[in-house]
Amino acid sequence: MKKTLLLSALVLFISAGCVTDRAQTGAIGGAAGGAIIGQAIGHNTGGTLIGAAVGSLLGYMVGNEMDKADKIRLNDVYETSPSNQTTTWRNPDSGNRYQVTPEPAYKDNSGQYCREAQILTTIDGKAEKTTATACRENGRWVIQ
Questions:
Q1: Cβ(91)–Cβ(65) under 8 Å?
Q2: Mind listing the pLDDT tens digit for each residue in 11-65?
């Protein structure tokens, strides 16, 4: 049983390297840690499974929260930044860097206000440029 548990934990940690979303990474790490703790406390498969489930949920919540600050900053750029002016920030927790250049707002076919932005994200030294469109919904910008 201990060999199976250790092998499962190893597979989870290795697969975490293939995941790019912080919430998913947190869920995988939480599941592995929860499974180990659950096995140590319960000394059975049920304890291991419960520990993995609880750890996965907690890990997802923590990982998702790390990205929340960047989402708030991005919403602020869509809301207040002048068109064609770049806003730059660095997330102090993750070290990720962002450069966002919004374009002028426009009304889409449904009459909703939308705005495109060029986003340069640098994560672990790797830069990736994307174009994102956000539209106003219930008083905030929502990326489409």
A1: no
A2: 444 444 444 455 555 556 556 666 677 666 767 777 677 766 666 654 544 444 4
For residue 88, count CB atoms less than 10 angstroms from its CB and return exposed for 0-12, middle for 13-18, buried for 19 or more.
exposed
The domain in which residue 122 lies consists of 72-143
15: number of Cβ within 10 Å: 13
Alpha helices for 17-101 (secondary structure H): 22-42, 45-80
The whole-angstrom separation of Cα 31 and Cα 89 is 32
Question: Is 52 in contact with 37 (CB distance < 8 Å)?
Answer: no
Question: How many domains, the chain?
Answer: 2
Q: Are 64 and 56 in contact (CB under 8 A)?
A: no
Question: Do 92 and 61 share a structural domain?
Answer: no
Structure tokens that stand for 124 in this block: 């672990």
Cα dihedral across residues 92, 96, 100, 105: positive or negative:
negative
The two three-digit tokens of residue 125, written as one number: 């030294």
